[in-house]
Design the sequence.
């Protein structure tokens, strides 16, 4: 069972993602809705994968990316942003476009957990 961090500021979407993760047999860390809350969680807990919305209220999730990289934690962007809107070094990272199909998200999670 993997520990998957959900970083999403829209409550309904965060809960929907959490249910999908639990239904797939994993445990949910969070959901967190801000960069600061995410930093605190990552300082206290190990996670196996993170699902990241790009826009969290008035801030972007970008400050968290280097922290995840430093921890060697894989992540998937779950966002309506196009890859070209991401910082150049992250444009090739996995991205599930919103609105997404639950099966697409779960299969991406499983693929990354098998080959981190």
Sequence:
């Amino acid at each position: 069972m993997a520990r998957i961090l959900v970083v999403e500021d829209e409550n309904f979407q965060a809960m929907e993602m959490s249910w999908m993760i639990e239904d797939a047999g994993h445990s949910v860390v969070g959901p967190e809705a801000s960069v600061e809350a995410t930093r605190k969680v990552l300082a206290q807990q190990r996670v196996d994968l993170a699902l990241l919305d790009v826009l969290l209220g008035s801030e972007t999730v970008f400050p968290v990316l280097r922290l995840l990289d430093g921890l060697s934690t894989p992540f998937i962007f779950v966002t309506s942003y196009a890859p070209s809107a991401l910082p150049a070094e992250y444009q090739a990272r996995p991205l599930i476009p919103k609105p997404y199909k639950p099966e697409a998200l779960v299969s991406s999670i499983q693929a990354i957990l098998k080959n981190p």
About this structure: The chain has one domain: 3-114. The chain has a mean pLDDT of 95. Helices lie at 11-23, 35-44, 62-70, 102-114. The two ends are 14 Å apart (CA to CA).
